[in-house]
Design a protein that fits this description.
With 389 residues, this protein is α/β, with parallel strands linked by helices. The protein has 3 domains: 4-132 and 274-377, 3-Layer(aba) Sandwich (Rossmann fold); 138-221, Penicillin-binding protein 1b domain (Penicillin-binding protein 1b fold, 2-Layer Sandwich), CATH 3.30.2060.10; 231-264. 42% of the residues lie in helices and 17% in strands. It contains 14 helices and 15 strands. A hairpin with a 2-residue loop joins strand 7 (171-175) and strand 8. It is globular and about 65 Å long. The two termini are 29 Å apart.
């Protein structure tokens, strides 16, 4: 097995703009080395992989050493991304969107998280601006004074759907002095009991039986959706919609239908291509959150050659999907409003200390450090052989 001295040598070689290279790190060995590197440098990690499956596996390996934590207090954050593109006319999975927004909330709050794990695709996808997240997110607790009706209005503006019963994440209901809500960061919905404008108690409850489970110390609210309708986003979206219509020469009937959709705010389907226009300054990048969370973070690039291929394929898919939307005369914004280019991703990474892990050393002058881990096959065979005894 490799010694801690290998990690120390790797740590000493790190500097912004001068990537180091680590050979022989896979699976649990990679998790162990990254844990040692992070603790020795007293810096959190940003772990980037070639795809979502690899990101899931690496997050598990890293969490084994750091501890998994909870959704409200994680030690390792996983920032997921969907396979569908904004012009695919498919609504992203709500649970995945909720997980992404929850991760962005933690980053924006500067949470003490040991590692962030994401794919190259997720790193290139633009996200909700940190200022918007900060203005909407809230933490509520017993004894706090807040208007029940005002809170209901805020939830609507954050993309929550009003429902008779709260059974799914991203929904809420109001019955008398009780407001039920299921935020993305909570494992179960939460029931708020009001006395006037004072929150008397917070309790989690079972979404199927609606029976209360346990007291809750605090309720963390983050947006439930990325395309949501508030007074500000409606105004910005309508202006962006008109600009896009003028640039693309879209039939006026389709323009009127989309404007009415924005004004009513009942559904965001078909508006994903216009999402950056919902915010006057456009969308932000994950790098904007990293600068708030941990500008001193160390970046692990797992198989950088595979990441470059993934980003090149994404760039081609994005161009093709956007061209299809334009040909259908869909109102949309261009790819650069939704995604960073590979060159922009590389520029963002250059500000950090980077370790490249994989079989190839990319770039001249990259310092290579080899980790010699012995095979665990004999031990694994012995466990399997004796497992039934």
């Amino acid at each position: 097995m490799s010694s801690p001295d290998s990690v120390a040598a790797l740590a000493q070689a790190l500097a912004p703009g001068r990537p180091a290279h680590a050979l022989g790190l896979t699976g649990a060995a990679c998790g162990w080395a990254l844990f040692r590197l992070s603790t020795s440098l007293r810096a959190p990690l940003v772990c980037v992989t070639a795809d979502e499956e690899s990101a899931d596996a690496l997050a598990d390996d890293v969490a084994f050493f750091f501890g998994a934590g909870t959704r409200l207090s994680p030690s390792v954050l996983r920032l997921p991304v969907e396979e569908v593109l904004p012009w695919d006319e498919v609504v992203p999975e709500s649970s995945l969107v909720g997980d992404r927004l929850g991760a962005l909330f933690h980053l924006g709050q500067g949470a003490r998280v040991a590692a962030l794990v994401l794919s190259a695709r997720a790193l290139s996808r633009k996200v909700l601006p940190p200022a918007v997240m900060d203005s909407l997110a809230d933490v509520l607790g017993p004894g706090q004074t807040v208007s029940r009706d005002g809170l209901a209005a805020k939830l609507l503006a954050m993309g929550y759907r009003r429902a008779p019963l709260v059974e799914d994440a991203g929904t809420f209901s109001v019955r008398g002095d009780i407001l039920d809500v299921f935020p993305p960061l909570h494992d179960a919905p939460v029931r708020l009991d009001f006395f006037g404008d004072t929150i008397e108690s917070l309790r989690s409850f079972d979404a199927e039986t609606q029976r209360t489970l346990a007291p809750v110390d605090s309720l963390t609210l983050v947006p439930a959706r990325e395309v949501f309708f508030s007074d500000a986003t409606r105004r910005a979206a309508e202006a962006a919609l008109r600009d896009a219509a003028e640039a693309q020469h879209v039939p006026s009937s389709k323009v009127r239908a989309r404007i009415e959709q924005v004004r009513e705010g009942a559904s965001s389907q078909g508006l994903e291509g216009l999402w950056p226009g919902f915010f006057p300054g456009g969308l932000a990048s994950v790098f904007d959150y990293l600068r708030l969370w941990a500008p001193e973070a160390v970046v692990w690039l797992d198989e950088p050659a595979a990441q470059q291929r993934a980003l090149a394929e994404l760039e081609a898919d994005v161009a093709r999907s956007h061209q299809g939307a334009v040909a259908r005369q869909e109102l949309t914004l261009p790819p650069q409003a939704h995604f960073l280019s590979p060159a922009e991703v590389a520029a963002g990474l250059s500000a950090f200390r980077v370790v490249e892990g994989g079989g190839l050393v990319l770039g001249a002058g990259a310092a290579a450090h080899r980790f010699g881990f012995a095979s665990t096959k004999p031990l694994r065979d012995a466990i399997l052989c004796c497992g039934g005894r």
